Amino acid sequence: MQDRITLSHGGGGSMTRELVESVFLPAFGSETLALLEDSAVLRLPPGRVAFTTDAFVVRPLFFRGGDIGRLAVCGTVNDLAVSGAEPRFLSVAFVIEEGLETEILRRVARSIAQAAREAGVQVATGDTKVVEKGAADQLFVTSSGIGEVPEGRRLGAAEIRPGDRVIVSGTLGDHGIAVLSEREGLRFSTPVSSDVAPLNGLAAAALAAGGVHAMRDPTRGGFAAAVNELAAQAGVGAELREEDLPVRPEVQAACDMLGLDPLTVANEGKLVLFAAPDTADRVLAALRAHPLGGHARIAGEATAAHPGIVVVGTRIGGRKILEMPFGEGLPRIC
Amino acid sequence: MQDRITLSHGGGGSMTRELVESVFLPAFGSETLALLEDSAVLRLPPGRVAFTTDAFVVRPLFFRGGDIGRLAVCGTVNDLAVSGAEPRFLSVAFVIEEGLETEILRRVARSIAQAAREAGVQVATGDTKVVEKGAADQLFVTSSGIGEVPEGRRLGAAEIRPGDRVIVSGTLGDHGIAVLSEREGLRFSTPVSSDVAPLNGLAAAALAAGGVHAMRDPTRGGFAAAVNELAAQAGVGAELREEDLPVRPEVQAACDMLGLDPLTVANEGKLVLFAAPDTADRVLAALRAHPLGGHARIAGEATAAHPGIVVVGTRIGGRKILEMPFGEGLPRIC
Asked: A108, CA 20 to 30 Å: which among A226, A234, A315, B317?
């Protein structure tokens, strides 16, 4: 296998086969994938199936705590998990810029395989395209996923009721600041790591506690986008307490310096949950008992008042509206 | 909605929502997609499920007979169909270069919707990312698909036996030459149109005739890659007749001019089938009775001799080996 990817590696001939056999199959080692047919044929139990897709264009490809491969697996697994599904199978499609070092692709493939193992999912099928130098920025990865939705499980904005508690599973803004620090070469006394992690185990723990009505993973647009979207779709308002929206001091410091609100910065390993008031404490305890939920908090509640409006009570006793971010914040953060 | 796509449209905030609501929802109009949850939750009957993914980077985005949107739907539907599955649900993920005209995205979305209607599949979920000007070439589309595999259906290279007839469903090389003509501004007296079409109906007709052991859609690498791959995986050889591998005169003329072998040029609306000798005539008749299979031919047969080697008997009585293409042929043809 050559040191760099060439256009021929995307041509569908013997060079493509060499790439698959020397880079992807050793990493993924999936029996299904190894058949090299046009589709993977899978067995699923009867019932509902969740299906999701995400494109990843993060820059740089590698950052403290993760890389584009781990991000692709976790982003897809987490979209399935917050829909109440148990993630089972993933696809990965690569768009590669001609000249990319093969070793970079190998590292990304190994990272995909590692994250898939953590999440208990199988990489079932994939595709590779190569474009000329300058027609893409190194590497884009699109991952799709299939999960099983257990019978009787109902989750989603439509289930949210006024009085539901709003719960966050940990500190907010870590991923976005980690990527931005890497990209801009910022140095902090305490470096920020991305929180990118598969959340299916954490979500299952929360669901087992009972009374969870809706979940989101607050990625692009951060906590602010996730909670505004859920409130708008559910037709409820929300009243939150700033002191119960945990932000690491180093993330807050970076945001202050950059003029960002950490509540609008992407997370890749956190959940926002709406849970019935009588089970919220049990959900909180279940989250805290999980390695990825140690800093979980009940941050406030859904209200019948001011539907679609999210209000945060500040530490100094004020009240401010937490708006849906416009979108200008941080490009290529995932 | 603005005339051009900006980075903010990929930020996950209100601008992303505006893009989804003004471009994608009107085109796809899918009830599932309209829920705007992180995953689509679908119902599938019990049984086996086929899962596939493909990235599309074709240049230019629009060409005679199709565009990147139609290509994405058909490519994915066809990968499912040749696996013996009945395609049901698609996802589409867009990577957009900042500055792309919104109208281009609208045209692509409408084309996706049209092709999905033709194929009888539903666009269930999607994603949009935007990268800076120069970090991608206009638009890349990655599509994944889910199909149902009827109980008892067994298709694949492992089912191929020596003596099986090799059948092609029509003329070879049309798609690649259509895209290349558009890209290079070539003019022919009879312009070549891409054959891009959903093949699930054609595949179903062939399967209903009985005795089909394996199918492929000969895309990148063309007929040569598809038949070599199947022969190698099945451990058989193949003996084919050049005069029964149909090539349009205008495609042959373009290939002669460009120094290409039409058997290595991509198709997006053709099937290669291996069928039992006693049912091959019925399969041929079924293909020919379908609007997409009028030029179908039995082109030769699988052999126990020279496993993995595909031999073509030429019109002038010679014999040549049809090799697996290396990959250098035509970049960004799909």
From this structure: A226
